[in-house]
Amino acid sequence: MRPLAALLPLLAALLLEQTAGSPVLGPRQEASINSVNLVFNAECPGERQRDIISAWQDAVKLAQNVGKIDFDDWAAWEFFGPPQLLNKDDERNKKDYRQNIQAIFDNVKSSGQGWSLTPEDWKVRINVNCGPKNQDIDAECRGNSNTRAHTGNSKSLDGSGDQHYEDPSATMNLVICNSFFAYDGLDKAIEKNKGLDDILQKFDLRYYRNRADIILHEMMHSNRLTYLPNDKRHITDHKMLITVCEREKDNKELCDKKQKLVDAYGPENVKILARTVADSTASYVTTNANNFALYALSKYVQKEIGGGCGLSVTTNGTECGVLEEDFEKISHGEGDFGTTEEGDVPTVNDLEWTSDEQYPSGYIKQLKERMAMDQDAPAPIPSGPPLKCNGLGSNKYVSQSTLANNITMFCSDAVNQGVQDNGTVSISRNYNHGANDEVDISIGWPSGMETPFNEKECNNQMNSILDNCGGNGPSNPRGYNGGGTVTVGENVVYHITPVSARNPLPNEPFGGCDFRDKFAFKSFWVWGAGWESWDYGSRNGGLYEELKKCNQGRQVEDWKFSYGLGSDQRE
């Protein structure tokens, strides 16, 4: 196994051999939208409206960053397939689907929120619905914790009636679920990961999922935005029925074959979609929303971090992948590939994996090198990494010992309570209020589900954040913890979130003092950082007791203690 550090230049550069003589694109449809007007329902609070508008504008920014697409670029190969397949997919019409992809992004990138003084009739109306905090607005949001948002298309302007109106004049009706607001904004997601030393996380697109790419995904479902530039084809969410070979880590020869129905959603699965059933690759990827959204996110991340976000890796079905699985078969048939009904998914037939010969040799070489170096990475849940650390870049962190005690208290309290907090879908507690070690700890799970943890399980999952989201490296010798999130299965989410903004991490404790003697009145100040940061000096121990010793054991009069940020890094 080559060292992980060697992965950095591979991912940062992604210098792949380019195919020569790319065919020239023919004329494409021009963008037809100048701006939109987001119209919110009355129940959507103002703060949430602002978050949604910000995410919409960031989604437009993702589309704008795409610019003129280079279909001989590594990201295009991974999310849309080889350019020759996009050009030769439909032999009956000799269709070049690259025109559709370009036209869709051109239309979406001009769909920003319109100027307030622009007449309403000049802007395209988008209906946006959300509910109050901790209260999902509809059954689709409540019934699936993985649903962040969903979109309908109506003939009516107010969004009423049938939601499957396939016409370029359709009104987009966007519903935002509560789970959407648990994601970071675009800039914060970039900032959390771009400076990481952990290159397996830094270059893994799964860690950059954010509100903007969720909105961009939903924009792809809008017939007003994408139906006409996609030659009157609605963009949906495809499903794939695959057979996987799950291998034992200790014995790669053993293979347990299982069938799985999976969404063509998330970096790994959309790359699988782009590498399979070569006869129809183009029609599939150009009617699957997440291929568009993640291609745009990948290009934006590449620009921001200075290198390609090439993980997770998808190679052909004969090799064992990051998830210790071989994607050996893919559903394919004459029927609708993108059904939402499990019974209608076409049956699995022979392996139809796009051969390596369809790709530049340099690209395949890069894939295999990345795969070899990534073999020992922890196996993530396909819908997203089970453990996501917040990082320490925001200067919000807590001490390990304090957090360990808080976790023990929380899990005991949560198990004793046994049900979600009133009016919410979680149990949440705040500890060390007002102190530097202030932290929020919570467990969330869908309403109606039996309590999915016991005290041992709670401690195990919370301690995985404690053990893995800090570290004792050169930049953090005292092992402070930035918190994070653990997702168990698809429904149960454990959160640890430090609250207080602090100075940069101290390498060691330090302090200072000052003394004033005015006649009979004596006063002194003590300050520092890197000490206990939750007990306010504690009259029952700690700093207060040490000061009593200096005062010959007598009580300290006019005792005051506060936390704050000083220019000399004191807290």
From TrEMBL:
The keyword DNA-binding does not apply. Gene3D superfamilies: Collagenase (Catalytic Domain). SUPFAM superfamilies: Metalloproteases ('zincins'), catalytic domain. It holds the Pfam family Fungal_lectin_2. GO terms for molecular function: metallopeptidase activity. Residues 143-157 have a biased composition (Polar residues). Keywords: Signal, Virulence. The keyword Signal applies. Residues 143-164 are annotated as: Disordered. Residues 1-21 form the signal peptide. This is Uncharacterized protein. The lineage of its organism: Eukaryota, Fungi, Dikarya, Ascomycota, Pezizomycotina.
